Task: structure prediction
Amino acid sequence: MVYKYSISILGTGYIGLCSGICFASKKIRIIASTHNKEKAQMINDGQPPFYEKGLQEMMNELNKINPELFKCLINPVQAVLETDISMITQGTPMRKDSSIDLSYIERTAKEIGEALKKSDKYHLVVVRSTVVPGTTRNLVGKIITEVSGKEPGKDFGLCMQPEFLKEGDSIEDTLRPDRIVIGAIDERSGAMLQEFYEYFYGDHLQNCPVLRMNLESAELVKYGNNCLLSTKISYANEFANFAELVPNVDIAQVMKGVGLDYRLNSRFLNAGVGFGGSCFHKDVNAIKAWSKSKGYTSRLLEAVLGINDDQAIHIVDMAEQLAGKLAGKKVALLGLAFKPGTDDMREAASIRVVNELRKRGITDIIGYDPKANKTAEMEMGDKIKYAKSIEEALKDSECAILITEWNEFKKLTPDDFKKHMKTPNLVDGRRLYDYDTFNKALPFRAIGRINLE
Ligand code: UGA
Result:
């Protein structure tokens, strides 16, 4: 069968696999590639290598309708040669010195170069990974040119299209984005990518602006986005700390009042135990380190990270103010994943809370997460115990700290805590529970509110 578009996706993490499957669902032929043999096998067997809402169902559907539309190789050169457009969706992790690790991007650029050396067709290369400004042109473009002997703009096109999907909503965000940002080395590259999205999205593009700009601006848009979202969270956390200085002030009401300003909006103003995940820390650190290497020191981003780290210390302070010194007592952590709906533990607030508890000599810690117990154990080992149920976590404990706002925890009533705990001290790190109800019923503390009797 002949398809209008054949696309290679180089990297099979959240961005690569989710967008690839979404493209394939609209009859675009996708050849993904990973160096991980087992991962490729799983994907070809119709199994996602990580949990993401809706992904398994889409893969099942695709296998039923037309399995030819999506396959995964362990040969990136072959994947590029069989397609017209290649998307680089490799990870860009954080190095020990907090700067960006571009080694996977570098390797992929070499592989694309090797493929293009063997081909006479015009090929469009699109960087979808989050990369610091200058990477697409000066690293990816340069390596492809050196390895292939081909000329950018003439023999191959180059775009940078940042990705804005959130874990847990990857499919929905891919199918219904709020904008598409296309940075391009020249008009031809940008037009080719825009045409592809016009084909893929059809009518949806009527409500979704497509912004065209140069490569470096597009690279910086992504950092602008993640840094502003992290800043909003740290701002809300700072105000939560202000709110705790004034009895009976409630941060949730304050942020609602602020967020209704049409120039702002109330999303990402939820105060809590701090942000986690594979993106915010990594990206805020990467752009901070990048700007420093260019002679500019960011004071804003330093504060955003500092406030976030301090929330973990603050919540342990709250727990000890409520329950007294916790050393020698059993502490239960409700939720370990960096947010609900995922088993991802990367940079999760629970890790910082556990480190702080242990620093204070508290070793009897038990955690329960509906999805992340296994990944948490991989991350934290025997620093804590892992409970199979809420009841097991709460049993005999003297303080519970709510860290991830799973629905399963929302259902708990003050009686549930009273029934299972030795002393029912509860700290709400996500403002999940109705303050007045819980405050009346239990020894209770919550981020961003203090009541005087
Ligand atoms: C984030 C961005 O939201 C995406 O747009 C971006 O594409 C992605 O990073 C990325 O760069 O790949 P993600 O890390 O999946 O997505 O998760 P978010 O939903 O943004 O949550 C991040 C953290 O912020 C979580 O720990 C969450 O609990 C915390 N958060 C979020 C708050 O503490 N308060 C809020 O009001 C919102």
The pocket of uridine-5'-diphosphate-glucuronic acid is lined by residues 130, 163-167, 226, 229, 233, 268-270, 272, 275-277, 279-280, 338-339 (CB under 6 Å). The longest strand covers residues 6-10.
